[in-house]
Amino acid sequence: MEKTVDELKGVMECRKKEFGEEGKLLALCLSSRRNLCIHETVSKLDSREAVDAGCRERTSSWLRQEEEVPIEELDRQGKRCRFYENTSKTTQMEGVFTLEDLKHKGRREGVCPYFLAREFLLKAHVVVFNYSYMLDPKVANLVSSSLPPECIVVFDECHNIDNPCIESMSLNINRKLLDQAGAKLSELD
Prior knowledge:
The longest helix is centred in the first third of the chain and has 18 residues, at 2-19. The chain has a 4-stranded parallel beta sheet. The protein has 189 residues and is an alpha/beta fold. It has helices at 2-19, 33-36, 48-59, 71-76, 82-87, 99-109, 113-120, 132-135, 137-146, 162-168, 175-188; strands at 26-29, 95-97, 126-130, 152-156. The radius of gyration is 22 Å and the shape is globular.
């Protein structure tokens, strides 16, 4: 994924050098919370599931209802994520962003790279993510409904896509399944 976005950066630099124009472009990598988290506590958790849970504990909508305590204090108590709270303050993004670029921007500006990428997905010209995200119905619906119609999508790791696609459209038939199908057909008569 990083290599693809780095190559896009090279294309943009060449375009600027050859044509004297930068062009306004937003290109993003999409990845999991685990790959983008910069929160001091949550990012050190062992598994993807633990990072997801730690993030949700600090960003869920019901937290917005809590008492008026400064974000920094709630963050220290493990009840909120100050990076998430600041994400909506970023109103503009231009450029080509690798995962590391997003994390660097997050640290520099005090915003959450994961939610920043999701927020600016709506304005992206190019999006790069692992093909497995399109095979997961929950993620696919979220991502594909958020993309602008003219957005270019680059699937990373596509050389591995054939087996998961075949498996997702395959069905293992056993005797029990055949008997059930036969019974259903009998009911139709």
